[in-house]
Amino acid sequence: MDTYKFFFMTGGNCLIRENLESVRKRVAASAERVGRTDPITLVAVTKNHPVEELMEAVAAGVTDVGENRVREALSKQESFPDNHVIWHLIGHLQTNKVKQAVAHFDLIHSVDSVHLLEVINKESGKIGKVQDILLQVNVAREESKTGMAVEVFPEICRRAAELEYVRVRGLMCMAPNFENSEDARPIFRIADALYEDMKDKFPNGQVRCLSMGMTHDFEIAIEEGANIVRVGTAIFGPRNY
């Protein structure tokens, strides 16, 4: 019996299952505090965690998996031949990795330039795929973070709407790692306003993903409108670098 089937039969690691249950309860409580009843997608971020831990999470009900690096994701995807999960690329995407990314990811969160948009469109067209993407905006203007400036966001939306093999599904935002997570609230509010504004720039119903919030601030992000949260440490524990 292969490892993948083993984890589905045994239920995997109890600690990861318990952590997931805790995170799910926190997600639900955050939504309830602001009267939300719409679905919120929990993306389990497995960067620097072994594939065995990913299997444990999937055995515990995880359906969406986030990876920061294309190469690491490809090695883990080999253990999921039946495509039981939805794969999210949440890390910075270099143009020389686009060909692999469009072939192996369902949603790319980190599109931050016209040039990257056009390369994704070109490589997706080669395989006849319309690639779902999010536009990443550096709302906090952190020099250490990727993402486009707020000022160029309208221009990139216009260009994205013209491309045949790219489908913009929404926006991605990262807040600084504030000591007090409440300090992230203004950042998320700006991102939510941009998200609402961009809906008119694309076909009705196409834009419906607002990806923001990680382990340290996902509850605030949900209260401010996020419907995708990217959580790693709260599920898997500290990363082993």
UniProtKB/TrEMBL annotation:
Presence of the UniProt keyword Transcription in the record: no
Record-linked SUPFAM superfamilies: PLP-binding barrel
Required cofactor names: pyridoxal 5'-phosphate
Keywords: Pyridoxal phosphate
PANTHER family assigned: PROLINE SYNTHETASE CO-TRANSCRIBED BACTERIAL HOMOLOG PROTEIN (PTHR10146), PYRIDOXAL PHOSPHATE HOMEOSTASIS PROTEIN (PTHR10146:SF14)
Signal peptide bounds: none
Listed name of the protein: Pyridoxal phosphate homeostasis protein
Coiled-coil stretches noted in the UniProt entry, renumbered to this chain: none
Function, in words: Pyridoxal 5'-phosphate (PLP)-binding protein, which is involved in PLP homeostasis.
Family listed: Belongs to the pyridoxal phosphate-binding protein YggS/PROSC family.
All residue ranges annotated as the Alanine racemase N-terminal domain in the record: 20-238
Modified residues annotated as N6-(pyridoxal phosphate)lysine in this record: 47
Single GO MF descriptor: pyridoxal phosphate binding
One Pfam family in the UniProt entry: Ala_racemase_N
